[in-house]
């Protein structure tokens, strides 16, 4: 029997699998992960009868056909997620814990399942997913001191930042390597203080955010803003963290972050208020390779000739708030 851990390479996915494996150790589990936008992951699982596949923070909708193949192969699947799933297949070997409400994330879903045994790691994942309110509420319930809360938030932002790039070559650390480094640490701040490279990750994240914040808006409206970053690795790395930062600074507005891709197209990342009439994922699913969740979503590959139309639609949808 092979155990497979399939997870998004961002803070939420990393912190979800971290909690699960602290509670249920499986040092031989095979990691399947990638950059943030690398969401079609289940097809990489070579499942066999009796295998156990645990999926964290990956859209069931985007992996439906691969899920059917894995189940048909005789594997058992456990699925934890908060993205749009569509209809969840009814199968005796599938256990799905999927909650798409905008105030939760996969790390929080796993934390609740485990009785909040590893609340600090869950908070790191929630902070990384820009859910500062739920993360702070969890910390308050667990009695986490405020100075420690601030450091958990910074670590979550840095772990999330690490996942962004057109491919894993642009990431400071491959998410599978980062997961292996995290694995022994029950305390996330011990990981931040002791783990090789974590200090460099935190400082690189700060530097790239400073470059992004110095970039003026491409367009603005009362309820929305558009920022277009440079055609550079730092811009592709920081787009998610920068979008989260803007959403914290102006929570009543929608934000679009446009970044050139290495193949000549563009990636557009959206952050929208929780009470927006059109959710971020609904807006992005109208475009090829678009998806996400209610308050944070993106379109992975926008052709140059299609970019202006998408941005006009964004301003028309959110600009009059």
Would you kindly provide a written description of the structure presented here, covering whatever features stand out?
- By secondary structure, this protein is α/β, with parallel strands linked by helices.
- The strands form two sheets. It has a six-stranded mixed beta sheet, with helices on both faces. A five-stranded parallel beta sheet has the order 2-1-3-4-5.
- Strand 6 (219-221) and strand 7 form a beta hairpin.
- The protein contains twelve helices and eleven strands.
- It folds into two domains: 3-202, inorganic pyrophosphatase (n-terminal core) (Alpha-Beta Complex), CATH 3.90.1640; 216-318, Diaminopimelate Epimerase, Chain A, domain 1 (Roll).
Give the strand line-up of the largest sheet. Answer: 6-7-8-9-11-10
What fraction, in percent, of the residue positions are helical?
A: 40-55%
Helical element count? 12
**CATH fold category name of the largest domain:** inorganic pyrophosphatase (n-terminal core)
CATH C-level class of the largest domain: Alpha Beta
Taken as a percent bin, the fraction of beta residues is 15-25%
Outline type: globular
Order of helices and strands: EHEEHEEHHHHHHHEEHEEHEEH
Question: What are the segments in which pLDDT stays under 50 over at least 5 consecutive residues?
Answer: none
How many domains, as an integer?
2
Q: Can you summarize the main beta sheet?
A: 6 strands, mixed
CATH architecture call of the largest domain = Alpha-Beta Complex
Give the C-alpha Rg.
19 Å
Q: What is the CA-CA span between the terminal residues?
A: 53 Å
Q: What class, by secondary structure content?
A: alpha/beta
| Arithmetic mean of pLDDT | 95
The total beta strand count reads 11
């Amino acid at each position: 029997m092979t155990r497979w851990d399939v997870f998004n390479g961002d803070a939420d996915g990393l912190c979800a699998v971290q909690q699960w494996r602290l509670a249920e150790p499986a040092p031989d589990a095979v990691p399947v992960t990638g950059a943030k936008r690398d969401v079609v992951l289940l097809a990489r699982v070579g499942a066999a009868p009796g295998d156990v596949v645990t999926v964290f923070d990956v859209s069931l909708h985007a992996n439906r056909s691969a899920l059917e193949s894995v189940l048909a192969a005789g594997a058992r699947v456990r699925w934890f997620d908060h993205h749009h799933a569509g209809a969840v297949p009814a199968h005796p070997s599938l256990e799905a814990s999927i909650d798409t409400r905008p105030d939760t994330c996969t790390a929080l879903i796993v934390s609740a399942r485990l009785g909040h045994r590893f609340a600090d790691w869950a908070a790191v994942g929630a902070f990384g997913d820009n859910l500062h309110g739920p993360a702070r509420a969890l910390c308050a319930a667990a009695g986490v001191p405020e100075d420690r809360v601030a450091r958990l938030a910074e670590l979550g932002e840095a772990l999330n930042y690490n996942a962004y790039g057109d491919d894993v070559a642009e990431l400071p650390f491959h998410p599978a390597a980062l997961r292996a480094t995290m694995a022994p640490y029950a305390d996330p701040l011990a990981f931040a203080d002791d783990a090789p490279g974590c200090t460099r990750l935190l400082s690189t994240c700060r530097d790239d955010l400073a470059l992004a914040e110095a970039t003026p808006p491409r367009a603005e409206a009362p309820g929305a803003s558009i920022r277009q970053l440079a055609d550079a690795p730092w811009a592709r790395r920081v787009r998610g963290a920068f979008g989260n930062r803007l959403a914290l600074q102006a929570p009543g507005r929608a934000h679009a972050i446009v970044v050139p891709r290495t193949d000549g197209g563009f990636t557009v990342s959206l952050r929208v208020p929780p009470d927006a009439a059109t959710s971020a994922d609904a807006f992005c699913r109208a475009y090829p390779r678009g998806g996400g969740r209610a308050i944070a979503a993106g379109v992975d590959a926008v052709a140059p000739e299609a970019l202006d139309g998408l941005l006009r639609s964004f301003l028309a949808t959110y600009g009059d708030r």
